[in-house]
Amino acid sequence: PTVQATPSSSSGSSASGAVSVNWLNCLASKRVIRSVCLALMALMGLWLLHNWFSSSQSMLGPVTWTKYKADAVPVAMATTAAARPTRPTNTTASELADPASLASRLAKSNLPACPEDPPGLLGNKIPVKSDPSLAPTWAELQSTLSYIRHGGCQPEHCVARQRVAIIVPYRNRDPHLRLLMSSLHPLLRRQQLDYRIFVVEQAGTTRFNRGLLFNIGFVESAKIFPAYCYIFHDVDLLPENDHNMYRCGANPRHLGAEISSFGYKLPYGAYFGGACALTAEQYRKMNGFPNIYFGWGAEDDDFGFRVAWAGYKVARYPPGIARYKMIKHNRDAHNEADPKRIKYLEQSKKRWKEDGLNSMQYNVIGVQDRQLVYFISVEISEEAIRRRAHLT
Ligand SMILES: [Mn+2]
């Protein structure tokens, strides 16, 4: 075989030139292909990294996300609002289903019911001051908001259609709270609501628990001011359009759909954070917020899932209305993200009936009427909550 091989290789000397030229061509094109492939792989890598990063930023890991895609909370526009996109305040009778309370309040008054469309709204022409270093002092607020008593007010010349409690979880954000006061009170007055604002402050240095603070606010505020509609509101969100009505409808409404820090877009379809409006009945049916999420993240996603578990659909206003400026801030101390939150979120459907309004553990330290806002200070123990939920 070695002898036979020699002539074949020597006879191919003239042909080998052609072969090597072909081979060179081939190499040249392979080089091109290879570099194109490398570039594509690099791009793909960057894309994957970007995806991973943005999904970890939204604190819904990719695994959880695909798992819950099938269960994604259905989104429904506020139906009548769509018909009048510039002024979505005209809602149907069922959307303003506060008949018992409104009727009894009307019976006790000589005044007519307030119109469905409050006449004095300013739309997106409201001034928004969001620099915490320029926030007015409490004394300044009390003089400009002298019409506020017990954390709120009610319309002078008509009977409010809904009685609304605004619940704000809080810890150590005094400038934010002052900005919120200067923004919310005039807006809620223009919206002709009978409302009060309750701040629920988590005392001490235990990890922050936004969900549990909402549950506590719901229960404790009702002892002072039983409302029909509850707004679950972050302290650092300043509304930019007063057509974003702080009222409740037939379905839980997501008010915080367009937030400046998310580029005024939903960060993901199922996002249900920032500010939401639910009737007491809707909130109870959802068993409120979960209590088990300590630290930053995912309790709002769990709350969003509960909308679907309880048989509701998320309602949102058409674009351009539910807009908020988020006050710029760094992550707070004692609010570190808990890696277990993804696991809890995966167990949302299993756990929602046991973990919520019916399984709260807390101590009220004090309730204070500070004129512009009710302050409810509470103490919560992570250990007690975990024990109760069998999460040792
Ligand atoms: Mn924030």
Automatic annotation (TrEMBL):
Catalyses the transfer of galactose onto proteins or lipids. Belongs to the glycosyltransferase 7 family. It is an enzyme of class 2 (transferase). Its EC number is 2.4.1.-. It comes from the Eukaryota. GO terms for cellular component: Golgi apparatus; membrane. It comes from Macrostomum lignano. Keywords: Glycoprotein, Glycosyltransferase, Membrane, Signal-anchor, Transferase, Transmembrane, Transmembrane helix. Gene3D superfamilies: Spore Coat Polysaccharide Biosynthesis Protein SpsA, Chain A. Its main location: membrane. This is Beta-1,4-galactosyltransferase. GO terms for biological process: carbohydrate metabolic process; glycosphingolipid biosynthetic process. Residues 253-329 form the Galactosyltransferase C-terminal domain. Residues 114-248 form the Galactosyltransferase N-terminal domain. One of its GO terms (molecular function) is galactosyltransferase activity. Pathway: Protein modification; protein glycosylation. It is found in: Membrane. CDD domains: b4GalT. The chain crosses the membrane at residues 32-53. The lineage of its organism: Eukaryota, Metazoa, Spiralia, Lophotrochozoa, Platyhelminthes. It is a single-pass type II membrane protein.
